[in-house]
Amino acid sequence: MLRSGGEDGELTQLITTEVDRIVTLIDRMQDFTDTRPLKLEPTNVYPLLDHARRVALAGFAREATIEERFDPSLPPVLIDSDAFLQVLLNLLKNAAEALCDTAAPRITLATAYRHGMSVSAGPGLPRQPLPIEILVTDNGPGAPADIAEHLFEPFVSGKPEGKGLGLPLVEKLVRDMGGIVQYARERDPEVTVFRILLQRAS
């Protein structure tokens, strides 16, 4: 299919931006043992969500529909933009791969503000408010039951060709941003849900 010059230019810019971002992230974080802190700043997540969606639809998720269900009043979030974008892309790629044998494959990106949501940072420590919720949902079959509780452990994968590093990297980056990520099968009919909970910027 031929694209207009404008569409070609937009795709080229998208690819260039992604390459530059990935090189920067790799330079800063070579592996899971990197202890350098992420640069957390108050951020509007919607441009990042849009960028991740466009990258996915231009490549690995081009066979899927990606829906958006956003809370328009979401306040700024305390994140590292590059790390957050990598988290989104890993989760979108995971969802797209899970949908390879699904009729009418559908991924949903959603945001919400959860008043009162907090988690314990450890025994005797105060609870940390994490009211910002980002959901990546797909209508695929979910993880095999025998590995569902181990998805965020390195080298665990339900795919024959999988290396089992995408979700552990997601967990590390989210944790380094002071948040948590969870996997669940929810609703009726069931869908796969990856839920990210993050700090609101002060």
How would you characterize this protein structure?
The chain is built from 4 helices and 9 strands. A hairpin with a 6-residue loop joins strand 5 (118-120) and strand 6 (127-129). The strands form 3 sheets. The chain has a 5-stranded mixed beta sheet. It is globular. It is an alpha+beta fold and 202 residues long. 33% of the residues lie in helices and 23% in strands. The mean pLDDT is 84. Helix 3 (81-98) runs antiparallel to helix 4.
List the helices and strands and how they pair.
Layout: H1 5-28, E1 41-43, H2 46-58, E2 65-69, E3 77-79, H3 81-98, E4 106-113, E5 118-120, E6 127-129, E7 132-138, H4 166-176, E8 180-186, E9 191-198
How would a crystallographer describe the biggest sheet?
5 strands, mixed
- Basic shape: globular
Find the count of extended strands (DSSP E, 2+ residues): 9
Q: Provide the β-strand percentage band.
A: 15-25%
Measured as a percent range, the helix fraction is 25-40%
Unreliable parts: none
SS content category: alpha+beta
Rg from Cα: 17 Å
